[in-house]
């Protein structure tokens, strides 16, 4: 039976995929995070409005400090994604918008440009989904994205997440204009039926 207190809920400090290591950010990750943002700024901007606020390496340091605090409080389980064989920082993900009473989680993700197209994010989302259902007793795991973000949609669809619909004017893009957002989800019965679990 899971703890009733989110702060006391055990969450794995490391999640391993075949090629990825998913873990909370450490202070020494800030330079690699900054490098990935700088490398991928134009690539991320249409889908991740937060990228425009990262203007100096110090902002990556601040993000890591906040992410570690939110992890400790179980408010937001933000993780870095690393290549297991090299330790190279690949991108970010996590279990967000957590409702501990319902045991509902949203997976968000981004990948640096030079790591794209190799299946790293699919593997990361798969690992986080397993963790949510098998370790955190999830009743719902969802993924939301801009409806025009085909790569993000492909991750959800290839993993067997159920398309629930498109929410009109539910997300913003880089210029702040509202855009439609897609919602995909899994519930325990869906997860149990997946061939990859």
Could you describe the 3D structure shown?
This protein has a single domain, classed as Gcn5-related N-acetyltransferase (GNAT) (Aminopeptidase, 3-Layer(aba) Sandwich). It contains 5 helices and 8 strands; from the N terminus they run ββααβββαβαββα. It has helices at residues 30-44, 57-73, 120-134, 150-158, 188-193; strands at 15-16, 20-24, 77-83, 89-99, 104-111, 140-146, 162-172, 178-186. An 8-stranded mixed beta sheet has the order 1-2-3-4-5-6-8-7, with helices on both faces. Strand 4 and strand 5 (104-111) form a beta hairpin. The protein starts with 14 loop residues before the first strand and ends with a helix. The model has no long low-confidence stretch (mean pLDDT 93).
Give the CATH class: Alpha Beta
Major beta sheet summary: 8 strands, mixed
Proportion in β-strands? 25-35%
Number of domains: 1
Give me the number of helical elements.
Answer: 5
Query: Approximately how much helix is present in the residues?
Result: 25-40%
- Total number of β-strand segments? 8
Fourth CATH level, the homologous superfamily:
Gcn5-related N-acetyltransferase (GNAT)
The name CATH uses for the topology is Aminopeptidase
Read across the widest sheet, the strand sequence of neighbours is 1-2-3-4-5-6-8-7
Architecture in CATH? Answer: 3-Layer(aba) Sandwich
**How far is the N terminus from the C terminus?**
21 Å
Regions with pLDDT < 50 over 5+ consecutive residues?
A: none
């Amino acid at each position: 039976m899971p703890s009733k207190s989110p702060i006391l809920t055990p969450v794995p400090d490391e999640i391993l995929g075949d090629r990825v290591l998913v873990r909370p950010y450490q202070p020494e990750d800030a330079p690699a995070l900054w490098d990935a943002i700088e490398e991928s700024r134009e690539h991320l901007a249409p889908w991740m409005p937060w990228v425009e606020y990262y203007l100096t390496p110090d902002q990556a340091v601040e993000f890591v400090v906040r992410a570690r605090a939110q992890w400790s409080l179980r408010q937001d389980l933000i993780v870095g994604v690393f290549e297991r064989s090299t330790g190279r920082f690949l991108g970010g993900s996590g279990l967000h918008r957590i409702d501990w009473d319902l045991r509902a989680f949203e997976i968000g993700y981004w990948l640096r440009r030079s790591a794209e197209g190799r299946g790293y994010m699919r593997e990361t989302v798969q690992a986080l989904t397993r963790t949510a259902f098998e370790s955190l007793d999830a009743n719902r795991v969802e993924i939301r994205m801009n409806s025009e973000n085909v790569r993000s949609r492909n991750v959800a669809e290839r993993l067997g997440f159920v398309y629930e619909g498109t929410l009109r004017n539910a997300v913003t893009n880089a210029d702040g204009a509202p855009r439609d957002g897609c919602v995909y989800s899994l519930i325990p019965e869906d997860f149990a039926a997946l061939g990859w679990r």
